[in-house]
Amino acid sequence: MTQNVEQSRVEDVDVAIIGAGPSGSIAASLLHAQGKRVLVLEKQHFPRFSIGESLLPCCMQVIAEANMLDAVNAAGFQYKNGAAFRCRDQYTSFDFNDKFTPGPGTTFQVERAQFDKLLADEATKQGVEIRYGQSVESVNLDSAPELTVQNEAGETYTVNAKFILDASGFGRVLPRLLDLEKPSHLPTRTAVFNHINDNITCPDFDRNKILISVHPDNKDIWYWLIPFSNGRCSVGVVAEPHQLGNLAGNLDDVLLQMISEEPGLKKLLANAELVNDSALLQGYSANVKTLATNKFALLGNAGEFLDPVFSSGVTIAMQSASLAAKALIKQLDGEAIDWQDEYATPLMKGVDTFRTYVEAWYDCRFQDAIFYSDPDLTIKQMICSILAGYAWDQNNPFVSESKRRLNMVVEICRS
Length: 415
Ligand code: FAD
Hints:
Helix content is 33%, strand content 26%. The protein has 13 helices and 19 strands. It has helices at residues 22-33, 59-65, 69-73, 112-126, 173-177, 251-260, 263-268, 313-332, 339-362, 365-370, 377-387, 397-400, 402-414, and strands at residues 4-18, 38-42, 78-80, 82-87, 90-95, 107-109, 129-132, 135-140, 146-150, 155-166, 181-182, 190-197, 209-214, 222-227, 232-239, 273-274, 279-282, 287-288, 296-298. Strands 4, 5, 12, 13, 14, 15, 16 and 17 form an 8-stranded mixed sheet that branches. α1 (22-33) runs parallel beside α4 and α1 (22-33) runs parallel beside α8.
């Protein structure tokens, strides 16, 4: 393919942001509000599909910080007030308003095509420049950071920035280009998913909560059901690849077969119709050697991605944007910043809390704790805080000593 190089075209900005998903749009808005010259380079055109549709209340604080709360509240997304879990005939639910940590107790379940476009449009209204159809192809950090960008005509140009924020999600642009990739300790899992016209008639079904169902025979296989406000749901199954049958065949068949194996979901979705072709994401858990230096920071999924079971992805993405923007504003204003102390360590406190719970989900400790028939209500509130996204609240003993506290509860439940 011929590549046109516009060698003369060089642009200078304070911050170049790769990707206009939630972490990119929020970071751009926060930096622009402090007078920084920001340019967002987004490969695709919005609206575009993205997985990750169930938000956590904690992220509403960051949305408010970016001055986008009114727009999100007015958009007509499905209200969400908690999470429900089911395994065979056991059912338990968490009401996010009944939690230990102060802060919002409700949020939304969103089709990300609309949600991400809304955040990006709000950032644009605030004055941020988002350039769509622009793919970041290479980076040079020898002196001041420099990005090579390719537009849809195949032309390339250079963006010089004082700092780069990589918000490229599973694109993982800087981890790839700078050899920062590090394997995740979590096993390779696969998600097969679709949107459905759910046609749910069951009067007990709570559309205000994500429903996580566990496979009756394999407790490490689980399903999400995320209702939207338009009569549709997002439905997906997560398992190790060998547990899902023929992934090279028709993915609709894989998804429908897996749904038929979970009696509760089978009954609930008896009249459901698939909206799209089912899709698959495999091996999405990822990690990096370095999250930030004084020239770049990795936000959201471009840094570490754990696992979808607790819907923590967008919340972590937004927290990372907020933390990075605060550190970066100081650096651009002339302060010396230790990115480990000001960004990586505080961000990882929350990520590590979620990690404790993800690991305990798959080895069934957490499942034993939540399905326990006689839970201590204060402990439930503390765990509820984490499920609502407040995984950074060091006042919560289930955050500050997450492993020890969780293991204590599991021991009591199991005995
Ligand atoms: P993204 O939203 O992925 O945005 C990245 C953007 O960067 C994209 O628009 C992309 O086009 C752009 N880009 C990529 N490469 C380039 C390039 N070279 N140049 C320019 N632009 C580029 N999270 C939740 O909170 N709730 C859930 O219910 C949930 N469910 C999930 C289910 C599954 C199966 C998986 C795998 C993840 C789930 N997640 C969920 C996680 C969630 O999808 C992500 O954490 C979230 O989208 C991360 O946001 P982000 O801003 O980091 O990146």
